Amino acid sequence: MSTAATPVPPPVPQPRALPRPGLAPRASAIGLPTPTESRRRRPFSLLAKPTGAACNLDCSYCFFLSKEVLWAGSDQRMSHETLLTYLSAYLDSQPDGPVTVAWQGGEPTLRGLGFFREAVRLTEELARPGQRVEHALQTNGTLLDDEWGEFLAEHRVLVGISIDGPEHLHDTNRVNKAGRGTHAQVVRGWRVLQRHGVDTNVLCTVNSANADHPLDVYRHFRDELGARFLQFIPIVERVAEGEDEVAEAGWRDSSGEHVLYRQHGEGVTSRSVRPVQWGTFMCTIFDEWLSRDVGEVFVQHVDAALGAMFGRYSLCVHAPECGGALAVEHTGDVYSCDHYVEPEHLLGNVHRDRLVDLVTSPRQRDFGRSKRTALPQQCLDCRVRWACHGGCPKDRFDLTHDGEPGLNHLCEGYRMFFGHTEPHLQVMARLIQRGRPAADVMAGPMPR
After folding, report:
1. Quick one: 372 exposed, middle or buried, by C-beta within 10 A (0-12, 13-18, 19+)?
2. Distance of CA 260 to CAs 25, 63, 344, 408, 409, Å?
3. Catalytic site residue 253?
4. In angstroms, what is the C-alpha Rg of the chain?
5. CB distance 188 to 198 below 8 Å
């Protein structure tokens, strides 16, 4: 499954510091570097897809499965030549210090362990002495075994596992090609990672099946899986007029062939989370987290909102600008964003273009800036704009109360969540500023 998010680098729980929020790769999510800045190698992130849209599962809400249409006739396997070209270009474009090479799909483990052994070897060979290369892998977990576990642990790969909660909720949408639920296989893969001491986090989509069960979902991750780093991603599948039948069939036509999903249309599928559902889901989880888990469990949206109070924007969805998180396909094609793998957002190819030129091109800079410049007045006047910044552009297809276009479909949910959490986040921010751990918020009110 593809989402805009990749594994979250686990924050180091330092008792007197703000837990480091983050969206792997560890790159600025505020926006793109200027051409002058790029000559100083400002970081940006690139999601690599070694198997294109190919996946061993058939999750009903996965828009990315339809992207196979773009590579009809291709085996959707990144070649050694493309791997070498991509890694050379990416490492050359990044500054010294930590650099994350992020792998996603489709399902990247379909490319095989040998491919990733070669990828690690090449990065060690190509990295400059001042670069510290780390790898992050987003997977459905069903193909992981002890050999994978040993490799991932040895090379300190950060692994994100996609799982939607307990079995009865997960198996509603996350099924295999035969239509059978996959929860047991995912948990088996999770246990492999635990057994080998691999750094992990959970990526959970919030959809119509699990949105009304936030505590069941959260407690399953915390208590049954022992997960400590959690991402919650809302499912919003846009549907244009006349596309309802194709959309509800998982973006397949009457013959069963995929139809390319595009970010257009003003309707949504029945699988999509409703705005109030999303807000209620996140508020409920926040209250549970606040009552007992601060400093022990890290929820990406909470970390991102707390970071925003210090002017730190770690999550592209809620940064003032975007455009610094691109995707590279198995062919070497580079797209503006993982959610915009569409012909009109194809920027170039690593075999013929310099990555830094693609990232700093006027076209990509306009793409990133428009997140800020296209905000409707209702967003500009909103009291939670400090944390929301209009949300992801892909979801901005509703009308404001004044009839202005460009309002995020999940606006009501975001206003609920950020409005509900703001007073508590302010307390945590004051604690941190006074040199105290944010977890002290659980002790009760503090003097102003």
Report:
1. middle
2. 27, 8, 13, 23, 22
3. no
4. 21
5. no
- Phi, psi (deg, nearest 5) at residue 313: -115, 100
Tokens read off for 144: 């992981």
φ, ψ dihedrals at 430, nearest 5°: -65, -40
pLDDT tens digits, one per residue of 330-389:
999 999 999 999 999 999 999 999 999 999 999 999 999 999 999 999 999 999 999 999
Task: Read off the pTM.
Answer: 0.91
For tokens 């002290």, the residue is: 440
Asked if 178 and 184 count as a contact pair (C-beta separation under 8 A), the reply is no
Catalytic residue (choose from 164, 199, 338, 395): 338
Q: How far apart are CA 333 and CA 349, in angstroms?
A: 4
The phi, psi pair for 278, rounded to 5°, reads -60, -45
Name the burial class of residue 445, with classes exposed (0-12), middle (13-18) and buried (19+) by CB atoms within 10 angstroms of its CB. Answer: exposed
Could you give the CA distance from residue 358 to residue 231 in angstroms, rounded to a whole number?
Answer: 29
In this structure, which amino acid lies at residue 251? W
79 burial type by CB count under 10 A (0-12 exposed, 13-18 middle, 19+ buried): middle
pLDDT at site 14: 30
Residue 40, pLDDT score: 55
**Residue for token pair 């997977």:** 139
